[in-house]
Write a structure and sequence with these properties.
The protein has 350 residues and is mainly β. It is 11% helix and 42% strand.
Length: 350
């Protein structure tokens, strides 16, 4: 027993551990990979099928919601219509005036040509003529409140000089437009529904206008456009970027609002019922014309197909021509769902 315990058993343990170590080395260096796969073993494969959708019928209501602010309407500048001296200022800052009310009187001098006289001896002489004067009255262009007086009595002014400003005392709601919103409001409605958070009930805002404010460049996003955000997502869609264009509408006189308040505008620029529709993800382009990838039921192949487009609500778009109800198309435009390459991503190895 002493020989078995002290000689045989230790020797067997060494042999077993040696066999295990050899097997691990063999597996680690690919010895088992060949046998596990085998020369005739098939590689596993996964076949991905792009998701499809079908042309259906539905209703489309083109409602765009914008976030804006209440602003006081700009004062109208009043310019001198004559060149001369200010004879009289008829108003003070803060006075309420009506359209056509006199604001400033300007004395305008007009030179007269010299007069030729014949003397008793038959000779002629030139007699200078005194200039004539007249009063030019500068009047208010609209109803409002005098907000600025830019001249004093006896001051010399020229034609076109600003002499005063009249504030209309009215308010407007102004909201910036992104590219997507501007394309959906090519024909904005005449009226918008406005909600002032914490204020009165929603009210109708009239005289809706859309475009780039005068004196600003749409390409640069406007003179007062904010600087680019260095922390913004570089892969965000361009459709959500402000364009410099804006929507404005006039606040009614009986609405409770003040300059500086935030406001939400809701504009409905058209609606259609029971028309052919597709998800916007399936259509390349959303204004006028576009393209979809129609799937051939027989072969399963997708082919690019031009289509006519109508209204969109941002989720689905009206198909006016090019497809029939029930036609299968790819749910996503090929390549549109591929993520942009992230320059900060860490490459995976292995």
């Amino acid at each position: 027993m002493g020989v078995l315990r002290h000689v045989v058993f230790p020797a067997l343990r060494l042999v077993v551990w040696a066999v295990i170590a050899a097997a691990l080395v063999w597996l680690a260096f690919g010895g088992g990979a060949t046998d596990l796969r085998g020369s005739d073993a098939a590689e596993p494969s996964v076949e991905l099928t792009p998701p499809e959708t079908v042309v259906a019928r539905g209703d489309v209501v083109n409602t765009v919601e914008l976030e804006g602010t209440v602003q006081g309407d700009a004062a109208a500048e009043v310019r001198s219509t004559g060149a001369g001296e200010v004879a009289r200022v008829r108003v003070d800052v803060g006075d309420e005036v009506e359209q056509g009310a006199p604001l400033v009187e300007v004395t305008v001098s007009e030179e007269r040509p010299d007069r030729t006289e014949t003397l008793d001896d038959g000779t002629t002489t030139t007699v200078p003529q005194a200039p004539t004067t007249r009063t030019e009255v500068v009047r208010a262009p609209a109803d409002g409140t005098v907000s600025t007086l830019a001249v004093l009595e006896d001051q010399v002014v020229s034609v076109g000089d600003v002499v005063a400003a009249v504030s209309p005392g009215t308010l407007s709601v102004v909201a910036p437009l992104t590219q997507d919103q501007q394309l959906r409001l090519l024909e904005p409605p005449r009226e918008a529904q406005v909600t002032v958070p914490g204020g009165s009930a929603p009210f109708a805002c009239t005289d809706v206008r859309a475009g780039v404010p005068e004196g600003e460049d749409a390409a640069s996003g406007g003179a007062d456009a904010p600087a680019a955000d260095p922390f913004a997502d570089p892969f965000a869609g361009a459709g959500s970027t402000p364009t410099g264009a804006e929507v404005t509408c006039r606040v009614p006189d009986d609405a409770v609002a003040f300059p500086g308040l935030s406001a939400t505008l809701e504009l409905t620029a058209g609606s259609v019922q029971d028309v052919l529709v597709l998800p916007v993800t399936a259509v390349q382009g959303l204004v006028g014309t576009g393209a979809v990838w129609r799937v051939d039921p027989a072969t399963g192949e997708a082919e690019e197909t031009p289509v006519g487009l109508g209204l969109t609500d941002g989720t689905q778009v009206e198909i006016t021509e090019g497809l029939e109800e029930g036609d299968p198309v790819l749910e996503f435009v090929p390549g549109s769902d591929e993520l942009a390459e992230d320059p900060f991503a860490v490459e995976s190895f292995g």
